[in-house]
Amino acid sequence: STEVVMVDEVPFSLGVTIVKPLSVFGHGITDIEIHYLQIKFTAIGVYLDPEIVTHLQQWKGKTGTDLAEDDDFFEALIRVDKFVRVVVIKEIKGSQYGVQLESAVRDRLAAVDKYEDEEEAALEQVVEFFQSKYFKKNSVLTFYFPATSGSAEIVFAAEGKEESKLKVENANVVEMIQKWYLGGTRGVSPATISSLATALSAELSK
What we know:
Layout: E1 4-7, E2 10-13, E3 15-17, E4 21-34, E5 37-48, H1 52-55, H2 64-68, H3 71-77, E6 82-88, E7 92-93, H4 94-111, H5 117-131, E8 134-135, E9 140-145, E10 152-157, E11 164-168, H6 171-182, H7 190-204
Antiparallel strand pairs: 1-2, 3-4, 4-5, 5-6, 6-9, 7-8, 9-10, 10-11
């Protein structure tokens, strides 16, 4: 009887254990509006080390709305173990997803003057990883970001296919992939950012 949280008809378990147990703190979707129609692409669940709360004491007493607009707060989230689970709602080619991720990461790196040859090579590797994939409905993409290492493990699983894994070792690229999903006001899913902010605000007020 594992409890789950439903995100747009997609179930997410309340906890996962990677190295240690992580709890779901935020969830949402990515979507786009075309001619007044909302098209949903993915459902997202964000799992954090519950100890995160001890790192966030300076934001105690802030509302979820305040936190959602505070990029420094989301910067602080980068410091703990995190696991992001992304479930496909509307199928797309992996190459399309890869291009979106690439341009978001590259723009962020360029903005802080950290886009060098090493970053370009690491990002190319990520794009290549997605190139051959097909994101069928209910395919699952996960990102594991250990707090200490500056690396990320990306796993893609689709029904009937063997899991594919990629380890990204470039700390700058890893940071910007995290920020694509968890970058406060610039995150790809405002719903997820808002959900995280509300949950962490509640945790901090306990």
